[in-house]
């Protein structure tokens, strides 16, 4: 199989069109073995069905890889489901090409059985795609391949990105991954299953080298570190920051951090390395709720990291989830009080928890009769403790009275002008950085 067309199926533009990093890493591993690879990005093609047909006819691939990042926007009540669009893409591929189709990507890894059936694909890869797709191209067997190699030293950005993916230039912020895996088990989270429970790191030098390449060869200076939490291994985060500093790279980046941070002096180092914005997965401002969500930190940790971040001059956002097991009016009020006290640059609040297969949340939802045994979760289902409408009204009221609160699920942002206009002014970094602090 010498010619591979990788299709990024993601067409979600909220909060921004996301650079298809997983597809780029997979493309790089194939290109290293002298395969001819092209990336087609359905997200930034205006007439994507026609353009895909054209790309398939021009390139005539021996194999098509379809990357499925999201299946829905995981937001309530304005939920968007993308499955129908993926069926249409698959039909387009089949109508033009007889090449086998391999599925991959996070949404596929979570819902492999459902998506294999729904899309009628030939093969699939659960987890890391680099080695697995290469092995399939070389005649490897198996319909759905699980893959989680421990050595990430060969993961790299394609050196020939412009020929593999000419539309690359449209992206201003580029993702960078420094490690995979999460050792925690928060009740709702898919990441330990997606990436494995063991932390697997890329060499810090390789990460800094990738950033240097993108900056110097392609003039890209804005990055998002896509690790589930950059500080899950603080020593590794420190090595990456020092490697960036050693190369004297003048870049800006943002990242997700867990409030469970032991060495607070690392915030200064983060800032020196170019970190301008941090998204804390705080989830709640109530110790009771943090316990029931299975978070490994307390409200005290949220206080500590907020203060340290402010002192280091880094903008920060707290991402919250309301409606978890045991949520009450009092726990919501506790959370709101904490946010009012800490005054983060932004608060991004979700109401209701997207139930994913294999999680503790799914088991709890089954026990409480929120979902029934055998019920599929491909079409999104949400968990609420108690009544959803009352909680929604309460959170909506809280957000309306504050300039720094944002509710992704409260309206359908796909066609909203607001985020687009903000993007015209602030071309890079998380959208929440543009919010006005209270
Ligand atoms: C970072 C991140 C973000 C950042 C992205 C920043 C940026 N500029 O890149 C931000 C904050 C913007 C974001 C937003 C959203 N996100 Co997000 N995000 C992630 C996260 C943590 C990492 C994604 C990533 O880049 N991984 C690194 C790359 C290298 O890995 P990868 O894409 O998985 O690719 C590997 C494999 O999947 C595989 N692979 C990929 N493609 C292919 C193709 C083939 C053929 C093969 C064989 C293999 C293969 O090989 C790759 C290399 O090993 C994932 C969770 C996770 N751990 O995956 C959630 C995740 C993808 N996000 C999710 C969601 C829901 C969203 C939002 C809709 C949330 C919202 N309501 O706003 C938006 C959508 C944004 C958009 N426009 O698409 C969900 C999707 C699940 C679902 N319900 O559909 C995930 C899985 C988290 C979760 N809840 O479980 N996100
Ligand atoms: S929410 Fe964060 S810390 Fe918890 S399991 Fe998921 S990735 Fe790990």
Low-confidence stretches: none
How would you classify the helix and strand content by structural class? alpha/beta
Bound molecules: cobalamin, iron/sulfur cluster
Measured by DSSP, the beta-strand proportion falls in 15-25%
Give the rounded overall mean pLDDT. Answer: 94
Let me know the largest β-sheet. Answer: 7 strands, parallel
3D structure, described in words:
It is a single chain. This protein is an alpha/beta fold. The chain folds into 2 domains: 3-147, Cobalamin-binding domain (Rossmann fold, 3-Layer(aba) Sandwich); 186-201 and 267-434, 2-Layer Sandwich (Transcription Regulator spoIIAA). Helix content is 38%, strand content 18%. α1 links the parallel β1 (3-8) and β2. α2 runs parallel beside α3 (83-96) and α9 packs parallel to α10. The protein starts with a strand and ends in a 13-residue tail after the last helix. The site of iron/sulfur cluster (SF4) has 11 residues, from α8.
């Amino acid at each position: 199989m010498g010619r591979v067309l990788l299709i990024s199926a993601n067409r979600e533009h909220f909060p921004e069109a996301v650079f298809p990093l997983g597809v780029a890493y997979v493309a790089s591993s194939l290109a290293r073995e002298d395969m001819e690879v092209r990336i087609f990005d359905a997200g930034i093609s205006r007439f994507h069905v026609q353009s895909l047909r054209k790309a398939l006819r021009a390139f005539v691939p021996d194999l098509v890889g379809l990357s499925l990042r999201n299946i829905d926007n995981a937001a309530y009540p304005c939920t968007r489901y993308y499955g129908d669009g993926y069926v249409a893409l698959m039909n387009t591929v089949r109508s033009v090409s007889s090449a086998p189709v391999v599925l991959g990507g996070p949404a596929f890894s979570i819902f492999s059985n459902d998506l294999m059936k729904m899309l009628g694909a030939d093969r699939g890869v659960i987890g890391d795609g680099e080695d697995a797709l290469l092995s399939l191209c070389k005649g490897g067997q198996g319909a759905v391949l699980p893959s989680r190699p421990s050595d990430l030293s060969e993961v790299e950005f394609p050196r020939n990105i412009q020929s593999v993916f000419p539309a690359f230039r449209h992206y201003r912020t580029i993702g960078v991954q420094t490690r995979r895996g999460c050792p925690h088990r928060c009740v709702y989270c898919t990441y330990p299953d997606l990436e494995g429970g063991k932390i697997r790191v890329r060499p810090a030098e390789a990460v800094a080298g990738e950033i240097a390449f993108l900056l110097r060869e392609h003039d890209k200076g804005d990055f998002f570190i896509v690790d589930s939490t950059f500080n899950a291994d603080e020593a590794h985060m420190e090595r990456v920051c020092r490697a960036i500093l050693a190369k004297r790279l003048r870049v800006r980046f943002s990242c997700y951090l867990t409030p469970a941070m032991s060495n607070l002096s690392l915030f200064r180092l983060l800032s020196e390395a170019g970190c301008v914005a941090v998204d804390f997965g705080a989830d709640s401002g109530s110790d009771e709720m943090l316990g029931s969500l299975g978070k490994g930190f307390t409200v005290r940790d949220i206080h500590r990291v907020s203060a340290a971040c402010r002192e280091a001059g880094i903008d920060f956002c707290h991402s919250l989830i309301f409606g978890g097991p045991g949520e009450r009016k009092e726990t919501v009020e506790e959370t709101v009080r904490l946010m009012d006290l800490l005054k983060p640059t932004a608060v991004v609040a979700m109401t209701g928890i997207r139930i994913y297969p294999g999680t503790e949340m799914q088991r709890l939802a089954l026990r409480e009769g929120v979902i029934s045994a055998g019920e599929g979760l491909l079409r999104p289902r949400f968990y609420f403790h108690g009544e959803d409408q009352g909680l929604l009204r309460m959170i909506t009221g809280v957000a309306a009275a504050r300039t720094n609160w944002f509710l992704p699920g409260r309206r359908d942002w796909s066609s909203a002008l607001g985020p687009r206009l903000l993007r015209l002014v602030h071309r890079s970094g998380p959208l929440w950085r543009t919010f006005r602090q209270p």
